[in-house]
Each structure stands twice: as structure tokens, then as C-alpha cells.
Amino acid sequence: MDAKARNCLLQHREALEKDIKTSYIMDHMISDGFLTISEEEKVRNEPTQQQRAAMLIKMILKKDNDSYVSFYNALLHEGYKDLAALLHDGIPVVSSSSGKDSVSGITSYVRTVLCEGGVPQRPVVFVTRKKLVNAIQQKLSKLKGEPGWVTIHGMAGCGKSVLAAEAVRDHSLLEGCFPGGVHWVSVGKQDKSGLLMKLQNLCTRLDQDESFSQRLPLNIEEAKDRLRILMLRKHPRSLLILDDVWDSWVLKAFDNQCQILLTTRDKSVTDSVMGPKYVVPVESSLGKEKGLEILSLFVNMKKADLPEQAHSIIKECKGSPLVVSLIGALLRDFPNRWEYYLKQLQNKQFKRIRKSSSYDYEALDEAMSISVEMLREDIKDYYTDLSILQKDVKVPTKVLCILWDMETEEVEDILQEFVNKSLLFCDRNGKSFRYYLHDLQVDFLTEKNCSQLQDLHKKIITQFQRYHQPHTLSPDQEDCMYWYNFLAYHMASAKMHKELCALMFSLDWIKAKTELVGPAHLIHEFVEYRHILDEKDCAVSENFQEFLSLNGHLLGRQPFPNIVQLGLCEPETSEVYQQAKLQAKQEVDNGMLYLEWINKKNITNLSRLVVRPHTDAVYHACFSEDGQRIASCGADKTLQVFKAETGEKLLEIKAHEDEVLCCAFSTDDRFIATCSVDKKVKIWNSMTGELVHTYDEHSEQVNCCHFTNSSHHLLLATGSSDCFLKLWDLNQKECRNTMFGHTNSVNHCRFSPDDKLLASCSADGTLKLWDATSANERKSINVKQFFLNSEDPQEDMEVIVKCCSWSADGARIIVAAKNKIFLWNIDSRSKVADCRGHLSWVHGVMFSPDGSSFLTSSDDQTIRLWETKKVCKNSAVMLKQEVDVVFQENEVMVLAVDHIRRLQLINGRTGQIDYLTEAQVSCCCLSPHLQYIAFGDENGAIEILELVNNRIFQSRFQHRKTVWHIQFTADEKTLISSSDDSEIQVWNWQLDKCIFLRGHQETVKDFRLLKNSRLLSWSFDGTVKVWNIITGNKEKDFVCHQGTVLSCDISHDATKFSSTSADKTAKIWNVSNGELLHLCAPLSEEGAATHGGWVTDLCFSPDGKMLISAGGYIKWWNVVTGESSQTFYTNGTNLKKIHVSPDFKTYVTVDNLGILYILQTLE
Fold first, then answer.
1. Which residues form the WD repeats (predicted)?
2. In angstroms, rounded to a whole number, what is the distance separating the alpha carbons of residues 820 and 1042?
3. Buried b / exposed e across 326-363, counting CB within 10 Å, b at 16+?
């Protein structure tokens, strides 16, 4: 301490020792870090007040300049203004190198860390609660840099948030324990979409330079993973503070190896998370002395000098920190109104906001009313305007600038007055301010101004419309996220139904919002405001909700799909289609490419909802008994529970150490059973996620589990790869029965509605029915026989029956095998219907409780909800993918084989179908003038059918293996074929002569006829060759890829050709020198290939400027730039070939679901 400060302290030592009470002075100095706990104890041990003061001053004299400043500030805070004035002249100049702030005692390092982390500042009037702060700091220190949880819990309004902020306002704690910084998140009571917004904002704060990703996470799971990476790589050894946590499921999103401090009313919220846990309880009341201290600081008086009404106010409000602060802020402006404010509290004239609450509503409601009444008249209306804000939503200043039509500085001045009077809270993140109300304040305002709410919401919408067009909001605008998330809420609350419908029924709004935040929140809004949207037009509302529900998995992907093109795939009566058509026509005029699916009216969409809750294959999904929830499990080892209507996640459990293969709700919905590759069966509490039982008796992985339908005597059935089924009684530790009979893995089991029968499906190809009481086998159905006549190759005839589900009346059972779903009548054993929609193996099926719908889960990471009536009525013909197309003027003729082996000729324009014959074919083709058809089979045989008289011509030059592709020449006299035997045959079938083109080393995948009797062929050997089909000579040989060449095409001017490969790339080459010109399939940021799979076919436009490719879907490319011009997402995937008209305006393909697509360029 410098001489001037020391002398000043010595000079006024006697006056200080005589007047000061050391207790609260020491609290301040301990808070500032200039007095230790042991020093405090030493002072307290002195017998008299004066001796305690003398001991404290003696200690200060031995300390530095900062201690002098801290002592001076403590005197001011405790109301000793006259004594502080005596020391004012001795205040030393604090060295800037120490980083100390001469007012608060906080270092610049601490201030910077807390400001960057969004930690709230100290209240205007701050009272230390050092013991609690020390307790929190001690718990934080116990984490020792390892992941863990420190929980501050207590009643609302008890000061938990202030304590959490104060605990990290410590230089040594931050520097020693959390050098990576502190990050504050105000959580509050959230639904899934609200939590996603919080996580998106946090990820944005942690990744401001966008070095990890330039887009927001689209779901909670992705946000959790992003947060884990950011905390691990960019912010290691940092502290995450979660303020006001209500629900345990919220913590799951942050349970990713972080150090976390949280405030909550319920200390059990951490029961669902792993890691070390420490708890600091906070009393609900400040206590009389601390309450009086707050009032004394507000009115700048010593506690001893406070009037008697001060004591009564503390008693009346039960020492609530929030209430005391509100009253104190009023008294600061009107210090003579003690009696008035006390009477306001005692009269209890204000209506209680909500009964039976942990909040002290009487006192708070009254204090709120008084606070608002005492605002300046010219700003009262502005506070009333805040009634429209939602709880726990931080509003950017820009939103209120628009609402009040003011400059930013004017708005901030008004809001600061509210903040100063504890009527509003401010959160500063960098340079921007965000304002929010405590949820009690929101309740108070909405109750007080309930008659004005509609007009207040209308006001903000009117002001918004003056400044913005909804779909033109830019992501870089400060208020952008607020409007995207709450514009519909304000419109609905304003009862502006016309405007709400216009917004929600706008393809522009859907595109803008889903591109920024994903589809989940928008689907939630369609459900939330359905009653309003249906008033306008129920059909239109259904159009948009169905569009979002069935395309949500596409709208959440990157790169973002063209939503107009998706809309053009909707039925022509749909409002979505009509808006898309209108926009498309306008954009086509500016050179944009769009496609019309002209035969889509023949396609029935059987799914009602498609969700993607897991990050890997979904093995099973099931309804709760009330039909409101769906549980699912999969290869990511988790159990997920989400809403059946919207797909919003409710619960997530890391259930097993290996893949979770099945899950099931109990009849009373209290439990969920899971079984896994780890050979264990587990029972969970369906609401809390708590583990109830673990069974471990199967000797191999457990594939399935199902509860009985009666809760009177609850049993669980499980099936395993050990070929056995077991029955478990939840009241017993060991299994009750074991069922023998299957000769291979038991994949699924299901009780009949009356619990008398148990159905089981097996890899042995059978469905068996068992007596649940005796465990004896009753019936067996061989499902494999229904595949024997299918289009699948015979060597791929292993049929594993994956799962089954009973209808509510017990009369029907649904079965899944491969990617197909069958519906059976139990009594007759007859198949009622089947349906396709998944892109890969279907692992699970289940009827809803009322039987109106059923769930399916698949390797394609999706869960589909199907409507049973639609499936039963569906009789759609499914085509094999080997088709041929002839384009004649305006006609499109398609030759195809359907799933029951019928060869059919389809008029693509009219939809008329002519059934020609039945044949087991591997490929087929039409002659150019539609006089002949040809087809090859798996044995290498080739036949030609003359359509006029049904004459058949058979080649004597048979291939040795499967024929892959056949094609007539333009004069129809010659038929060219390629095969697995690596040969190409040029067969003049009228002269019965054949030329063999030999040169490929492996299977000839396909070929294309060129001009001047030339032929382009490509093979599994990675080469592309050019042949003269007259002489049989090989003229060019290109090595294009390391692996299989799947498709090729040559431009019409013969200067360049394209090739595609199993490496998921498409390349464009120079014909003359073999130089690579373009690589058309770079990897996207998600890591998935641009084509969604192997590129299996290509075709150049006549002018050589455009290229079309087929793979997982269809893409159009600009050959000059190598950029994609358009993408068409088919319902299925794995497209084999794309047929293109000579004018490059019509395109035909078939996906792996057997759906025919005839696409036409929109003009």
C-alpha cells in the first residue's frame, strides 16, 4: 500500500473503529478476493465490535492498494458514505498491470471472459452471499478439469442465477479451473423445438468464425454432436452454465463430457446423466438481515436506520430476493413511500396469477403491479407492449426497434429503465443486446393486459410488415431468427387468421424457414395452429403438412434441395403443386430447369409421416398404448421416444453397450423393454429413463421383445439368435418359459390382442404361432414361397422374415421381409396387400392401437407411418427396373416387366397398358418402329417377338451367362446384346448371322449405339471401348476408372464422352486425346456422394452443353461449368438407367420400388 493511502487510513482509524460493523464489510472484501476466510474468522474471534474493527483495519494496513480500494467500496455499499468520504482522498492509483477494476474489484481478464460467455452482470444492487458462493466454487474446483455436474437448486426467485454468475466472477477460479472460458445458456422450460433453438444459438456463439460448419444444426442430436466437438476442440477446459433447467431430458442434449454448472428448482434433474455430481442447495428466503441489507443499499441508508416498515416488508414478502429487489428499486426513486408500498403488499388486492405454485405469487404479483405503476407515464405503454413476449425468449433490440419504430439508441434507453427497475433483464453477447422477462413477469403482464393482447400482437405484425417481407429475411439480420421462430405465433395470437394462412401456405416461407432452421419447427407450427389453418381451407392445410411430413428428411439435408422441384412432384390438385408450378414457370423464363412428373397421378403415397430420429439404421419402432408416443431403437445404441404426430423427441437413453435391436412399450405405458446385441434385455421407466430390470439368460444376441396386451399379469416375450423364445415375468428374476421350434434366429415376436397366441418370425423363412400358456406350436406359415416367383434373382432367394404385427381385431397380421411389407388374413392365410417405400431392409412393423396406421423402421435411417386403409386398397403394379423406351413424336412408349412377370407396353402419355406375354427376362427392348420386342434371360438366351402376329425368333448364338442389355439398330434388322460372359454379340436376326466383339476382360455392363455403325461399350474391367459393328474391330480403348464403369455416353458432336463408376463419380473426357475435362461428383460437406449412390447412367444433350446422370436420384449438369442444374428425388433409389428423348426434353426411369417416372422439361 502506498504511503498516501496508508496515512489516510491511519489518520481516520479511530473514527472507523468506532462506527463500522465488520460482518458485511468483510463479505464484500472476501467477494473481491482481498480477504481470506481464515482472516475473517480471526476478526470474528475478537470479543467486541470495536476490537473486531481494529483487527480488520490492522490487516488492511498490511495489504496492497487494491485492498484499500475494496475496503472503500465496501463502506460505500454498506451505507457508510461519511466514513468513505474520509478515505476518498487517499484512494491510490491502481496499477493497470494488475488488471483490477477500481470500482468492482474484478480483473479485466474476468470481465472479458464473462462478457464473451454471456454471463449476466451483477444486479444494480448486489448483496454478497459469500458462504453460498464459496460452496459453489469449492464444488466447481472438485471437478478438477474432468466432466461433471454442479447443481444449484432452490425455489424460484431465491437468487440461484445471481449466485451462479457470482461464483465464476473469480480470477483464480477461471484461470486455474476453466481457462477455456465460461458459456452461459438461459434454458427455461422448453419443448424440443425451443431447445434446438437454444443449442443453435450456443453453437453459433462457440463457432463465430464458422470454422467447423457454416450452417446451423438441424436437430438436437446433430446440435449435441456439434457442441461436443466445439467444446472439445475450440473450447477445452471451459465451463458451461445452464440457467433455470426444468426437465431432465434437456440435460441429455448437454451430456457430452463437459464441465457444467446448472441452476434448477428440482435437484433430481441430474439423475438421468452420468458423471460426478455435486449439489449446492439455496434457501428460498434471504433471511431478514440480508433482506434488510438489500433495502438499505437501494435507499442508501444504514440497516440500523431503516424504518419499521422495512422489517414488515421483508416479512410480508417472505424474504424473496426478487420481490425485495422490485420494492427496493421503487423506494430508491421514492424513499418516503415505505408505508404506501407496505400497504400495497398487505392489502393483497392483486389477483393471484396461478395457484398451487412454487412461486410466491401473492407477493410477487403485488410487487410487479407496484413496479409497473411507478414507471414514468411516457414509457408505461412500452412496458405493456412486452406482454407479447414468450417466456425464456431473448429478444434482439432490432425487434423492438421495429415494434416501436425507433432508433436503436432510443430503444436501449427505454429498456435500460426497465432493467434498472428489475422489470426486465438484459443479456449482452458481444456488441448486441438481447432482452427478456422473467417467466413470472410474463405471467403478470399477460394477466394484467389480457384484454389488450390481441391488439398488441396485431401491432407487432403491422410493424413487421412495414419493414420486412417474410421470405426476404436475411440470415445475417440481427432479428432474422426471432421472426422465423415467432412470426406465426404473433399472427395466431393476433387472430390474424388470413395473414397466418397466407404465411403458412406460402412455398416461399417454407423454403426460407426450412433452409435456415430445418423442417421440425415448421411441422410443429402446422400442428399447433391446425385449428386456424383448417378454417381457411382444410385441404390446403393438409397439402402443406403432408408435403412437409413426407419431405422433411429431404428438406433437412445438405445441400438444400430445390423446394420448387419438390413441389412439382405433388398431386396437381395440391396448393403446393400450384404454387410450385407458378414459380417454376417464372424461373424457366430466366433459364432455370424444372421437370414435370407427367404420370404421377398413377402413384399413391401410402406413407403419412417420415422421420429420421437416429444417426444410423433404425431396427425397431413401436407405439405407446395411447398412440401418442413412439419409441425407436437402432444401430446407434440408443432408445428414442418422440411424439407420434410431429416426430419431436421426448426422451433419449444410451440403452446398451451394443446395437439395440428391439423395443416395446408395456400396456400401461409405464415401461419400455429393450434388447441388444450385447445379449441383454432391459426394462426402463418410460417417463424418466430409469433402468428398472436387466435380464441376461440368452446365449446369443436378443433380437426382439414384446409385452402382453393385458397389464393384469404383465409378461415379456423375447426372441434370440440362439433360436429360442423366452417368456419373462417382471416380478421374477428368471425366465418363465422357453419355446423351441425355429431352426434359425428368431427375429421378431408379437402377442395376439387376446394374449392367447404368440407370433414369431425367423431367419428360417417361417412365421410360427405359439400357445402363450402351454408354449406349444400351433401354426406355421412358410413365407419364402411367396418370393419364389418374384423378380429377384434365384441366387438371392434367402428370405428372412424380419417382423410381424397383429391388427387390433386379431384377424390380420402384417409381416416384413426384405424391403417389402405383406398383410395377411390369419384364417385363410391369404395375402391382403403389400407396399413398398423404404430404400433398404425393413426391420420393424407395428400397428397403431386402433389399427388405422402402422409403423415401419428401416436401414435407410427412417421410420414411416402408413395408413392401413390406403395400403389395403393399394393395387399398384410394381415394375422391374429393366425397361426400354421408344420416343415417337409426342408419344412415349415404355416396354417393361412387372412383379408378376407380365411383359407390358405402356403409353407414357395416356397411361394405357397393353399386356403382351409372360416371361422370365433379365432385359428387354423395343424396336424403333414398335414392330418387334426382344428380351434376354439369365441363361443367356435371346428371343424376338413380332407384335403383329406374335411370331417368335430365337437366336442360336446364345450367351453363356446373363444378358444385361439388348438393343435394335435403326433398321430393326440387327439386335445387339451384352452379357456377363464379357462378349458383345451383333446378331443380324433376319440373316441369322452374328459378329462377336471380344476385348473386355469382365462383364460388359452396357453399350450405346453411335453414328456410322460405331458402338460404345463399358465394362466391370474399368475400360471404355469403341467398336465398328460391321467389321468387329476395336477402334479406341480408354482406361477411365479404377473399378467398374457403370455407364457412358458420347456427345452428339463426338468430341467428348462421359463415364461413371462404382467410385460414385462422373467424369467427362476428350475423345481425341483421352484428357479428363470435368469431375462431376465431388463430395459434399456431409461426406455423402453428390449422386446419392453409384452413378449408373449418363446422357448428353444434343448440343453437348448439358448432361443427365442417374444414381440415387437424377441430376442435370452444365457440361461447361461442371455444376448441377437440377436434381429430381425419386421415391426410391438405385436407378439403373435413364432413357432420354432425342430433343432432351423427356426422361424415363424406374426406381427400386418399381415406380415409373416419365419426366418432361417444364416450358
1. 611-652, 653-694, 695-738, 739-780, 835-867, 956-988, 997-1037, 1038-1079
2. 35
3. bbbbbbbeeeebbeebbebbeeeebeebeeeeebbbbb
* pLDDT at residue 107 tops 60: yes
Kindly give the residue spans of alpha helices, DSSP state H, lying in 644-709. none
SS3 669: coil
Domains and CATH numbers, the chain: 1-104 (1.10.533.10), 106-284 (3.40.50.300), 288-363 (1.10.8.430), 451-592 (1.25.40.370)
pTM summary value = 0.60
H or E stretch at 618: strand 618-623
Question: Residue 1056: which residues within 8 A CB-CB, separation 6 or more?
Answer: 1050, 1068, 1069, 1070, 1071, 1077, 1100, 1104, 1119
Determine the pLDDT at residue 1048.
Answer: 81
Segment 235-290, tens digit of pLDDT: 888 999 999 887 888 898 898 888 999 998 767 788 888 889 999 988 756 777 88
End-to-end CA distance of the chain, in Å? 86
What distance in Å separates the CA atoms of residue 660 and residue 543, rounded to the nearest whole number?
A: 36
**Closest by alpha carbon to 1119, among 1066, 1063, 1047?**
1066
Q: How far apart are CA 661 and CA 634, in angstroms?
A: 6
* DSSP state at residue 898: B
Angle value at C-alpha 411, between 406 and 416, nearest 5 degrees: 170
Give mean pLDDT, residues 896-917: 84
CA distance 356 to 827: 56
Q: How far apart are CA 1087 and CA 293, in angstroms?
A: 60
3-state helix, strand, coil in the chain (%, to 5): 30, 30, 40
Identify the CA nearest to 313 among candidates 283, 290, 343, 350. 343
SS (H, E, C) 170-197: CHHHHHHHCCCCEEEEEEECCCHHHHHH
Give percent of the chain above pLDDT 70. 86
pLDDT computed for residue 818 by the predictor: 56
SS3 132: helix
How many whole angstroms from its chain centre is CA 273? Answer: 21
Which three cell numbers mark 654? Answer: 444410451
Identify the three-state secondary structure at position 1022: coil
Q: List helix spans (H) across 218-360.
A: 220-229, 248-252, 288-299, 308-316, 321-333, 338-347
Evaluated on CA atoms 458, 460, 464, 467, the torsion sign reads positive
Rounded average pLDDT over 635-643: 91
β-bridge pairing 757-762 and 766-771? antiparallel
pLDDT reported for residue 1100: 84
Read off φ and ψ for residue 495, nearest 5 degrees.
Answer: 55, 30
